[in-house]
Structures are given as C-alpha cells and as structure tokens.
C-alpha cells in the first residue's frame, strides 16, 4: 500500500513540475536564423527599371527557381524605383534562404525577411548591377 501512495505522490510532483516549466517557458517562437517548416520567407527586389535581367530564389522545398526578364510590378511614389516580392511558406525542415537579382538598369537591391524579420539585404549600382541576399 505504501508503494502505491509513494508512486501517486511522485507522479503528482512530476506532473506539477512539468506544468510549471511549460507555463514559465511559454509558447515557442519561430527562429528567423534557422527557418523550418511553416516559416514565411519573403524576398523583396528593387530596381530603377521595370523589366530586369534575371531573378533567382529558393522556393518552399529548397529548390532554386529562376526567372528571366522579370517585371517588377510596383512603382515608388517618387517614380524612381520599381519593386516586387516573392513570399513562400517553408515546407522544408532546413529552409534555404537566398536570392540574386540583376537589373537591366543601374540599380539593384534585395532584402530577405524570415517571419517578418530582416535577415539579409544587399544593393549595388552600375550598369547591369547585381544584388545577392
């Protein structure tokens, strides 16, 4: 009989300790440094021209996608730059995040966000400039 009571008390103590740890830790937050399944990756591109040379990025399955002569759909209010973005929701345990962009003009820039956090950016100027994020 004593063995049963001790087992029940020990089980209750372990359960209470586990509950206290779970409450103190709170829900896990997504890590922007190591994206994984379900995380959102957004690639943003900027140029001084509407139609550009090339674009490459990793998709939700870590496959490199490419686009020739990409058109950036959004013109800035000052009408000096164009921009566009590609958003993927990761389906990979170890999500690659990377992109390259080449302008047909003289200005290229890119930014990479993971779960809304800026993790990479680059810009360059010059004829057929390239940016790597």
Please tell me about this protein's structure:
Residues 1-30 form the signal peptide. Keywords: Signal. It is a single chain. By secondary structure, the chain is of the alpha+beta class. It has a domain at 40-132: Immunoglobulin-like (Sandwich). The chain is 18% helix and 39% strand. The protein has one helix and nine strands; from the N terminus they run αβββββββββ. The longest helix is centred in the N-terminal third of the chain and has 24 residues, at 2-25. The radius of gyration is 24 Å and the shape is elongated. 23% of the residues are buried.
The proportion of residues in beta strands is: 35-45%
CATH arch. level architecture of the domain at 40-132: Sandwich
What's the end-to-end separation, in Å? 67 Å
The secondary-structure element order is: HEEEEEEEEE
Class of the domain at 40-132, according to the CATH hierarchy?
Answer: Mainly Beta
Structural class from helices and strands? alpha+beta
Number of distinct beta strands: 9
**Rg to the nearest angstrom?**
24 Å
CATH topology of the domain at 40-132: Immunoglobulin-like
- Total helical segments: 1
Q: Mean pLDDT across all residues, rounded?
A: 84
Name the helicity range: 10-25%
Main sheet record: 5 strands, antiparallel
Query: How does the overall form come out from the CA principal axes?
Result: elongated
Keywords: Signal
InterPro entries: MmpS_C (IPR038468), TAT_signal (IPR006311)
Signal peptide: 1-30
């Amino acid at each position: 009989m004593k063995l049963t009571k001790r087992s029940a008390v020990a089980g209750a103590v372990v359960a209470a300790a586990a509950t206290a740890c779970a409450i103190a830790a709170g829900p896990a937050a997504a890590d922007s440094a190591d994206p994984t399944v379900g995380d959102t990756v957004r690639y943003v591109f900027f140029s001084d021209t509407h139609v550009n040379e090339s674009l490459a990025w990793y998709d939700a399955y870590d496959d490199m996608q490419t686009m020739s002569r990409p058109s950036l759909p959004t013109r800035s209010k000052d009408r000096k730059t164009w921009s566009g973005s590609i958003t993927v929701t990761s389906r990979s345990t170890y999500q690659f995040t990377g992109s390259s962009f080449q302008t047909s003009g003289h200005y290229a820039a890119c930014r990479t966000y993971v779960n809304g956090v800026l993790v990479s950016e680059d810009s360059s100027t010059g004829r057929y400039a390239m940016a790597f994020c």
